[in-house]
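Sharing a chain and its predicted structure for anyone who wants a worked example. Both blocks are below, sequence first, C-alpha cells second.
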Amino acid sequence: MATVKFPPTSGFYELDCYVAQLLGQAGIPAFIWGEKVLHVYLQKRYEGFFRGWVVPDEAIAKAVQVLDDEGFPPCKDGNECAVFAPDQKFPVPDHHYHDYYHSTKSRRSWEGGVILYQKSRLFSEFPEPPVGCPRPGDPYYTFLASGRQFQKASDEPQNGQPENQYPVKLPVPARYLEAMCLLKIRDIEGYATISSWNSAKTGFVDYMRDEEHIMYYVKDLKRWHDKKDKESMREDPGFQSTWDRLKTRRDKELDAALRKIENRTHTLKPDDLKEPWLEWMKLCVDRKYAQSQNDPDGNTCELRIYWDMRESGTLPKPDPKPREILMRTLPVEKRLRVARLIDDPVD
C-alpha cells in the first residue's frame, strides 16, 4: 500500500493499516485494543476513539525505532502531556506519538495518535499474535475487514489479508472481554484505570442483554399473533386459506428479522467465555439467574474470583505504571467481609 503521511487526513483506519504494515514488515507482531475495538465489536457507526497498540515486551524498543525512522513526531509536552494526568482512565503508555492534526496544544488527543503498550501489562494471558493475518479459527485473534467491521464468525474463513489493506489485528471478542475482566480484578482496589475495564465489561453485558431481549420479544410476538389469529378464525375454508397465506408471509418476515438478529450475536455470547468469566457474565446478563444465585449484580462472584486468585497466587502482577487510586469504593478487605468471603478479624 502507498505510504501514508503522518497525520493522515482521510481517516484513522488508514493510519491503523499503515502502522500495522510498518510493524509487520519489521517482523513485530502487534494488535489494537481500546474504545475503537469496542465500537467495532458492538457495531457502532463511528470511529476515532482511543485505541492503543500492543506489542511484545521485548519488541517495544524496536517498534519505537521503526516509527521514529518513519518520521512519526515525538510528543512535545514531556511530563505535562495529558497521557500522564492521574485521572486518565487509560493506562500510562510505554511510548506514544500524537496526531497534531486532530489535537490541541493544551491537551493532546488520545484518539488520533499511536499509543504503544507492552503486552504483559494488559494481555499477559495471550499468546503472541502472528505477524500477518491470523489463521482461520484462531481462538485469540482476528482482523479488521474494514474500518468498522471485523471478520464475523458466521462468515467463510478469510485466508488472506483484506484487499489493498494491511491487516489490522485485534483480539476475538470473548478473549478481549476475559482480558478486561482480569484487569478489573487486578485493579480492584480502585485505580483510575478500573473505569476503563468496567466500561468495556458493561458494554458487552448491555449488548448481550439487549440481544436476548430482542430475540425473546420477536419470538414471543410471533407466538402471540398465532394464538390470537387462531382464536378469531372462523370455521370457513376461505378464511383459513387467507390466514395461511398471511401467516406464511408474516413468518418469512419475522424469520428474516430473527436471522438478522442472530447474525449480530456473532459478536459475543456468554457461552463463548471460559470459566471463571462465564459464570460472572451469566450473572451480569441473566437477571433471573442472578437472582436465583442471590447475586443480582455479580459483585459477589467478582470478589470470589479475586479472592480465589489471591489465595492461589495467580493474581496478575500490578501495573508497573499505575494510575492513582481515585475510585471511591469500600476497601477490598471490607467488601470481602460484607460478601462473607472472609471472616471479620478477631479482637
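Comments welcome. The beta strands are 31-34, 51-55, 95-97, 114-118, 141-143, 169-171.
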